Amino acid sequence: MIIISLNSDKNKEKTYSWLVMLKIKSLVEELAHVVGADNVVWEKEDLIVYEYDGSIDRSLPLAVVLPGSAAEVSKCVKISNKYNCSIVARGAGTGLSGGAVPLKQSLVICLTRLKRIIEVDEKNRLSVVEPGVVNIKLSDAIKDKGLFYAPDPSSQKACTIGGNVSENAGGPHCFSLGVTTNHVLGMEIVLSNGEITWIGAKSRSYTGYDLRGAFIGSEGTFGIITKIIVRLMKIPESVSTILAAFKSMDDASNTVSEVISAGMIPAALEMMDRITIEACEPVYNPKYPKGSEAVLLIEIDGITESVKEEIDIVKKICTQNNSIEIRQANNESDRVKLWETRKGAIGAYGTIAPTYYLVDGVVPRTKLTEVLREVKNIGRKLEVTIGNVFHAGDGNIHPAILFDGRKKTEVNQAIRAGGEILEVCVKAGGALSGEHGIGTEKQDYMRLVFNEEDLRAMKKLRAAFVQTDKNVDVEKFNPYKIFPRGSNDDEIYKLNDPEFYPTGGEEWA
Amino acid sequence: MAESISKKTTKAFRGNGKFPESELYQCVNCGFCLESCPTYIETGLETESPRGRISLMKAANEGRIELTDNVISHWDMCLQCRACETACPSGVKYGFLMENTKLILETSRRKTFLKSLLWYLGILIVNKRSLLYMLGNIIKFYQKSGIQLAIRTIGLKHLLPEKLKKIEQNIPTISTNFFHPNSKTYMPSSNAETKGKISILAGCVMCITDSQAIESTIRVLTRNGYEVQVPKDQQCCGALQMHSGYKNTTVELAKKNIDVLMSNNPDFIVSCSAGCGAQLKTYDHLFEEKDDYYEKSVIFSNITKDIHELLVEIDFKKPVIAIDSTVTYQDPCHMVNVQKIYDSPRKILKSIPGLNFVETTQRDMCCGAAGTYSITQPIMSEILGNKKAKVLIKTKSHIIATSNPGCAIQLRSSFERLKTSETQNVPEVNYVIELLDRAYGNGE
Ligand SMILES: Cc1cc2nc3c(=O)[nH]c(=O)nc-3n(C[C@H](O)[C@H](O)[C@H](O)COP(=O)(O)OP(=O)(O)OC[C@H]3O[C@@H](n4cnc5c(N)ncnc54)[C@H](O)[C@@H]3O)c2cc1C
Ligand code: SF4
Ligand code: SF4
Predict the structure, then answer these.
(1) Secondary structure (3-state) at A86
(2) E strands present in A294-409
(3) Ligand 3: centre distance to CA B49 (Å)
(4) Which of A159, B67, B94, B213 could form an SS bridge with A155, CB 3.0 to 4.6 Å?
């Protein structure tokens, strides 16, 4: 059996010893016994499609198992303990920080088969879902009850709610409604010893520590989620969306600041720059006016009267800031059309370059104009193309560095640019990640914001969840993620370093 | 050993310089296509997803994997419904990538003797009309003589292996009369001036399973003022061959069709089957600029219209006879994902007096027919067919209207299966064009 690890340049091939092979075989057989042979993936070619997520990192798993119930998840965890291998949970694999990329030759537990909506409680406005339920499927299923699930990542047509909870995902509408953690009441989880337990509950009236809050955003390092209780919201009476095009980024940024200082909280406030617009044109054909350097998408919702009033004010602010065209959508199909381009914008970068590295920094809104200018300078200095599409409302920027992942020098430049952008964000008083998580992508920048003590405290929290008994490896779930590796404090890690991934074939055994 | 195969693989995908790399690497791994893919939704497996299949192409292209039966099985499980193409924000031409993959496989894969024989026969049959009609007659005999009934009721079926059993179930009901392209000229039904000339490609399967729909198409067009011909020596459109990697055969068929269908200088070439129409419209991709047929193929593809598309464009005469039924429309993949025609059939249905048009959910989901898929992947095909049928039954429609023979056959047999297991009234399956014809008074 040959394992190829792509991250090394030479397609370094790795052969397992026969002893390890035997172990893998018996592991696979035991798993198949629990979930059925069709739901275990182990052939070497098949594992290639589980080495990636939506980010640029890659690493092959040992095997992949797709359980069909919480009980099966628990059994799989117990089996993995017997073989002493670590586990990586996986939803749809759309994550952008390498969260679902299995390091340390882990066993991947993929939750795409757990996709039932178990309960919809209209009266209490909550729903119990399995982690593999695709985000938008939940909102679709409850639409005719006048309800929706608020967090709406741009990837909502594909990503799972389990993945959302683990990354504490945000989305365009999280500006006014809050991110995932504001909409999750509790979940059923499987711990490292295979025990199934609940944290949080349907009502808010439980006492004690908010373990739910600690678990959300833990990027799969604490345990595996098998059920989630989510809060549902009422679909607003009226929604109106406008799209405004501008001749400069500064005009667009100023509009954002003015809208907010006018005291409004739009349901969404999104910005796209020229490169992003160019990427979208061939796919979605939105025909934005010639010479647009930036477009803003602003959505106001609420009761009909006030929506009308507010949208008029917003339009006025746009015009005052030299907007060259304003489009308004008042019905659902026009709205969908306006949003389509924004939600597809990141994927559409494929029309420009085969790979993107999407940075996910947060900056104070007042520094937005300044930071965007610096991002532009970094692009110019390092000669990389950078597109911008982001949640302007909460200062969560997504500079997308566009390059060809097959070319080593371009990879290097992209990673350098990403690092410099993050530094700019932190210097401006911002954060490393708004919604995509740390994963493998940003782990080595953690020290830009946290000192050793902070990191130690976080590790203790992880140990509290994971170490069901003393012998359990703290790296049981999603190993080698989030925390910076080694002691190279200041040195920014190079992702294409051949040593980046542990490829020691027998380490797990 | 492993090494030498892997070298061969690299050669297969890259060595001849043919695999379109820029299109392949346009996929950025975002995963937006996952939930549009019927096989991914069914299995939850990345290996059975568009992104997974493209990643395997990349891996083969990079020489990381061998073209093992296992790898090929994932590509074979693809319906080529191209729903993923519609979902993709990056504009990845999945259909094109898959055609290229199949082309490479066809030249390099080892097939069992039985499989190659079956393929050879299958291709021969659609290539040669006389053989097609002969097969039609054999099946008709099988169905009408009572042998089928006997096999199905006495339980002889249980003696058949599982796969064969499913294929047997999927044998389409054969029309009483076959349609024979005959070059006859059908004149416009009113005396007013002729609006133009039309050549129809009748399709091969449709001629033996749904001849009435072809007749409807002719009547509807003449009523709308067109002079219509169904040229005699026309060939199969080549879609099935192309999707299976037989490009040379496809090119030959295309050349013949271009000659035959354009011989009387028509204003439009019309197809009433979504699959054939999609193929005809891309004849120009089969040739390169230096080829003799290139220019002709471009003109050909430009004047090719789907029947519904054409009717709406020419502002068809509104029908007056009522059809008092609840009707829903089932979008054939090659209509909506390839030809991008969504509104036209709906407009036609909604123009019929008395007809109560309802939409179904999961409109973008393939019914599992997918050309030869119901034969090559009978198990997945049946699962998807049943799923589709159940969703359609929920609309409480009397009639399911569609526009592709593959879908019509698949829906009928899926309804038939559900009927026996759940004993309920199942809807009828008709072509949109048949309903319009009926609302025109069937040419009376
Ligand atoms: C084009 C594009 C646009 C995007 N836009 C947004 C956006 O607007 N906002 C946003 O927040 N994100 C966005 N994302 C990122 C991504 O979609 C989210 O992070 C999403 O939450 C990931 O869900 P997933 O199901 O794909 O999870 P995966 O990628 O499979 O996994 C993500 C992490 O969750 C863990 N995990 C998954 N399931 C479980 C479980 N059941 N139990 C425990 N751990 C689990 C994994 O181990 C991993 O660490 C975007 C991604 C793409 C490709
Ligand atoms: S949606 Fe398009 S770019 Fe994204 S993974 Fe699928 S094929 Fe690739
Ligand atoms: S063509 Fe259809 S079956 Fe094939 S990968 Fe795309 S969506 Fe899936």
Answers:
(1) coil
(2) 294-302, 325-329, 355-358, 361-362, 385-391, 396-397, 399-403
(3) 7
(4) A159
| Strands, E assignment, B177-325 | 185-186, 196-201, 226-229, 268-271, 304-306
Are residues B31 and A283, on separate chains, in Cβ contact within 8 Å? no
Q: Would you state the structure tokens that stand for residue B388, as one six-digit string?
A: 């589709």
Q: How far apart are CA B12 and CA A58, in angstroms?
A: 25
**Closest residue in chain B to residue A3, using alpha carbons only:** B64
Phi, psi of B168 (to 5 degrees): -60, -45
Which residue has the CA at smallest separation from atom 8 of ligand 2? Answer: B27
Tens of pLDDT along B119-136?
A: 677 666 666 777 777 777
What is the three-class DSSP state of B34? helix
For chain B, what is the domain count?
A: 3
Could you list the residue range(s) of the whole structural domain that residue A383 is in? 353-441
Mutate to test the pocket of ligand 2, among B84, B88, B97 (most ligand atoms within 8 A of CB): B88
Q: What is the pLDDT of residue A7?
A: 39
Q: Which residue in the block uniquely carries the two structure tokens 């590295």?
A: A357
The rounded average pLDDT for each run of 10 residues, N- to C-terminus, in chain A (509 residues) is 32 66 92 96 94 91 96 97 94 95 94 97 96 96 95 95 97 90 96 95 80 95 97 93 94 91 91 94 90 94 92 95 93 88 92 92 88 94 93 90 89 90 91 91 88 91 92 92 65 39 31
Domain check: are A327 and A360 in the same one? no
Q: Are strands B326-329 and B399-402 parallel, antiparallel or unpaired?
A: parallel
Report how far ligand 2's centroid is from the alpha carbon of B72 (Å).
20
Contact A351/B2, CB-based, under 8 Å? no
Expressed in angstroms and rounded, the spacing between residue A105 Cα and the centre of ligand 3 is: 30
Interchain contact, B28 vs A93, CB within 8 Å: no
- pLDDT at residue B67 tops 80: yes
* Tokens 């106001």 found at: A300
Inter-residue contact A318 to A312 (CB < 8 Å): no
Q: Which residues of chain B neighbour A356 with C-beta distances below 8 Å?
A: 28
Please check whether residue A408 lies inside any domain of the structure: yes
**Is residue A227 domain-resident?**
yes
Best of B39, B48, B81, B90 to mutate for ligand 2, by most ligand atoms within 8 A of CB? B90
Choose among A46, A157, A344: nearest Cβ to B35.
A157
Pairing of strands B356-357, B326-329: parallel
What pLDDT is recorded for position B292? 87
Residue window 162-201, chain B: list those with CB within 8 Å of chain A: none
Tokens coding B409: 């056959």
Query: CB neighbours of A48 closer than 8 A, spacing ≥ 6?
Result: A60, B55, B56, B59, B64, B65
For residue B167, the model assigns a pLDDT of: 67
Predicted complex ipTM: 0.90
Q: For residue B134, what are its two tokens?
A: 């002969």
CB atoms inside a 10 Å sphere around CB B233: 13
Count CA atoms closer than 13 A to A57's CA, side-chain side: 26
- Residue A56 Cβ inside 6 Å of ligand 1? The answer reads no
Length of chain B: 444
Does residue B16 register a pLDDT over 60? no
Is B31–A92 a contact, with Cβ atoms under 8 angstroms apart?
yes
Asked whether residue A54 falls in the same domain as residue A154, the answer is no
Q: Indicate which residue's Cα is closest to atom 48 of ligand 1.
A: A99
**Do both A346 and A421 map to the same domain?**
no
Ligand 1 near B138 CB (within 6 A): no
Q: Are residues A383 and A426 part of one domain?
A: yes
Q: What percent of chain A has pLDDT over 90?
A: 70
Q: Quick one: pLDDT at residue B261? A: 87
**A84, A56, A15: which is closest to A410 by C-alpha?**
A56
On the question of pLDDT at B114 being above 90, the answer is no
Residues of the domain holding B423: 325-440
